[in-house]
Amino acid sequence: MFASLRFPNYRLWFAAALVANVGAWAQRVGQDWVVLTHLTDSSGTAVGISVAMQFLPVLLLSPYAGLLADRLPRRKLLMATQALMGLNAVVLATLVLTDTVELWHVYLLAALGGCVSAIDNPARATFVSELVPPDNLTNAVGLNSASFNAARLIGPGIAGLLIAVVGPGWVFVINACTFALSILAIGVMNPRRLHALPAANRARGQLREAVAYVRGRGDIQVIMVVVGVVTMFGLNFQLTSAMMARIEFGLGPGEFGALGSVLAVGSLAGALLAARRKEPPRVRLVIGSAFVFAAAQGASALMPTFHTYMALAAPVGFASLTMLTAANAALQTSVEPAMRGRVMALYMMVFLGGAPVGSPLVGWVGETFGPRLAITLGAVATLVVCVAAWIWAHRRWQPRYAVVRPALLPQLVITHPERELEAAA
Q: Model's pTM, two decimal places?
């Protein structure tokens, strides 16, 4: 499970990323709470817009960011993006602590932070490939997800406590400090121990080349469609949790943070299970885990009390993280190294770019018809895309079914002979 931690550079990355992710999750909770309670009168639409502003730049900048990740030294690029995101957190902290923050400030800083994140995301995703040998990449991706979701377990709880005790401004101060730690960790890495990926030479039509590559890979297309729909309508946890805690149950920031922490318990379990997986995941795991996510989220919308709703946050987190980790690892282990940055950027555009469309819509539904219906919308959309993807994959690849018995549990194994030929081509 922790095999990649034996590599010194990856250990530095893992530790710094854990701390930085705690700060990032705390800031997300703090920002949403400021918008929901300080700058508006419990407006789900305003929270949805602030979330959308963080991810809208991804739609515009991700293809070019992927090109930068394929061309430039990823280590230096990441140090630059971390510094800019730290500066963004400092500005927001100053505005909140001096009580001069306005709603448009939050929107603007969210958009600027989204621009930097659009560049940071593909560089971060591909840099993991330089920290470990290729045989350890699946494990490293799983541990990255474990770090991210361990932070999700800790960050919202810290944010809720700080908001209740000293106010949200100090949440942003803490996040700014974590970026300094990330820059330090990347700076002290041993460059001789990096497994450098081949850089793409400057040439015309490199973005079109990446799009053509994806169009020729049916497995990548299925992954992107499923993940895109789920993230657009289903993975709006910071919005729906805030609305359920504040509007549906009439609770405060502590309970809002607790929802994020319970969600992270399930997500962390899914990430650790993914880290144990030796073979690269396939499309069927992405579709299957998305289906489980739809069922768990649909059930959570029906829960009558806060505690029953919170209990279902764990399986929702487990299924969603299993889907995302499987999608990430399947892409990184099957894409050509020189093309990896651009393909991952296109994936990030789908993964993160759905939020600008989905978050305002989900926020409006929650504000107009209630948070429960907003959650149900995500569950139904996920179920529809799972059924459509399964039918498409079954017709195109004509899978054969066989039941095998691993050491612990029975498992349905589906082989796709035509997909393997397609992927090899």
A: 0.66
